[in-house]
Amino acid sequence: MMDTAISGLNDRRGALNPGRPKSPVISVVVPCFNEEEVILHTHKRLAAVLSDAGLDFEIIYVDDGSSDQTALYLRDIQEQSENIGVIRLSRNFGHQVAATAGLDYAGGDAVVLIDADLQDPPEMIPQMVEKWKEGYDVVYGVRTSREGESSFKLWTARAFYRLINTLSEVPLPLDAGDFRLIDRRAVGALRQMRERHRLLRAMTTWVGFHQTALPYERSKRFAGTSKYPLRKMIALALDGIVSFSVIPLRLISFVGLILSLLALVGIIYAVTARLMTDSWVPGWTLLFISSLMIGGLQFIFLGIMGEYIGRIYGEAKQRPLFLVLEVLGPQQFRDRQQS
Ligand code: UDP
Ligand code: MG
Description:
One of its GO terms (cellular component) is plasma membrane. Its main location: membrane. This is Glycosyltransferase 2-like domain-containing protein. It comes from Ruegeria meonggei. This protein is an alpha/beta fold. It is built from eleven helices and eight strands. It has helices at 39-52, 70-79, 95-105, 125-134, 151-167, 184-192, 200-207, 230-244, 247-276, 284-316, 331-334; strands at 25-32, 56-63, 84-89, 110-113, 138-146, 176-183, 211-218, 324-328. It has an eight-stranded mixed beta sheet with strand order 7-5-6-4-1-2-3-8, with helices on both faces. Strand 1, helix 1 and strand 2 form a beta-alpha-beta unit. It is elongated, with a radius of gyration of 26 Å. Bound molecules: uridine-5'-diphosphate and magnesium ion.
């Protein structure tokens, strides 16, 4: 199963003495968007797994602007337990940003990102922690099977990873989602990456350190429906490509180059027709040549400018990634307000 992972990135042995704390605290970050049907169940199973494994843990639920009863349920969950924090965002910012908010607030020695719908089995977390104890900084779950998902979803997901891997500068492990454990130093690195268009799984790969894969079987959604319609999947794919690649911009220059080459053929043809044959229209040659040349050159210049503008555009937006409506939890959790 390990062959789904990328060589070079993978199975780099952890440091001999990773210096992991003796009794670590594990933060579990759960982004939730309209998950009223599952959230209580998820919490029960998650808390049970973590306590049974004898882990010292905190669970951070991020309510990503849900419009159903999710926030109410989270409030209840929080009130019943000391080690629960709830961050409510001011509106729906999307899965990736909600997870980022959770990472910002996580205080543990390692952070686990997990979906709220129980598609990622919480039972894998103790194994992730074991890998982390061996010295790995990022332990990412690799889906060996995906139960209960339409063949369309599977096909688009596969296309998504292949496309990103072709275009992107960072190799993205195939079939790895966001279910992963991240050591606090990698989390620290992620916190410094404030880009607006984010694909966390690619960003955690970019961070480097010691990474390893952990195969698991992805189950079907416990209840409720997917919050990732095709539109959001396409947006996510675009983020993955544009944030980690300038190939689309180069494509413009490439098209310009092809057009210029075609223009050259046209130019040769026009000049030959003018000099060697009798079939030419007076004044046509120069017009033909200049319009072809200008057209081609414009594309090249546009491409070059696009290259720069794309970079400036990415840097220029200094907006906060998310806004917090309220934070529920123990005082020391609420005091963690970061960034
Ligand atoms: N999610 C979120 N904000 C959104 C969409 C989704 O926080 O705008 C959460 C959702 O509650 C779930 C996780 O992200 O915990 C993954 O979403 P979903 O299960 O709908 O995606 P799928 O598994 O179908 O790809
Ligand atoms: Mg899901």
